[in-house]
Amino acid sequence: MHFEDIRKPDVNKPLIIAAMQDMGNVGSIVVNHINKSLGTASFRHATSSRPPYVYDKGGYIEIPEEKWEYRFGKDIIVFGGGRGQPQENEELNELCQDVINVAKRYDAKFIYTVGGYHTSRSFGKSPTTYVTTTSQDILKLVRKLGIETTPTESVITGFNGLILGYAKLNGINGIGLYGELLEPRIPQYRAARTIIETLEKLTYQKLGDTKELSVKAEAVESRFSSEDDIPKG
C-alpha cells in the first residue's frame, strides 16, 4: 500500500467512520452519502500497489487505480467508500493498521464501521440494522438505546469487520452497523438508509437527508422487478 498526505485535517478528537465496498455496496453507499451530505474534504489517500485485475480495452489493457480517501468534516473523519477493497490479506491488514494510526494521530476515541448483513428473513421495505461492539460495556449502552444487536454468532470478513478487531487490539472503542439485505448482488439503498439513521442515534449527529436513498431504492426495485424478480432489501 502507498499512503499520501494531502493536508492536515482541522479536527479535534473526531469520531471516525470507516467502511469499504461490500455486499450490496452498503459500505460505499453509506460513506459516499455522508461525504456528500457533510461536504467533507480529502486529506489523505491510500493506494493499492497490487491491482486485483486489469481492464481489457479491446486489444490493450489498462491497470485500474485502486485508491481510497480519508476525508474530514467538523470533528469527523470518514474513510473508504469508492470501489472494492484490497484482495490480499497483507494489504488489507496494512490498511486497517493505517486507519488505526490516523485515529491515534488525531486522538479519536471511537471508530464506526458499516456493511451488509445477509439474511433470509422477509422484511419488506424495512430492513433492520444490527450492531456489534468491541466490548460488553458498549453493548449494554447500545441496548439501552433500543438498538438491535447481532442475533447470532458469525464470522465477519473483509475490512468492515476486521477494522473492529484492530480497534479493540489498540484500545479504541468500536461499533459495527450492518443492514439487512436479501440480495447482495445489487445496491442495497434501504439497508444503507437504516444504517445512517441508526448511526445518527449513536453519534447524536445529523448525517444528511436519506430521502434520496429511498428514491434510489425504489428505482432499483422497479428495474429488477420486471426482470429477475429480485427481492427487496
Automatic annotation (TrEMBL):
Gene3D superfamilies: PAC-like subunit
Pfam families (alphabetical): PAC2
Domain of life where this protein originates: Archaea
Name of this chain's protein: PAC2 family protein
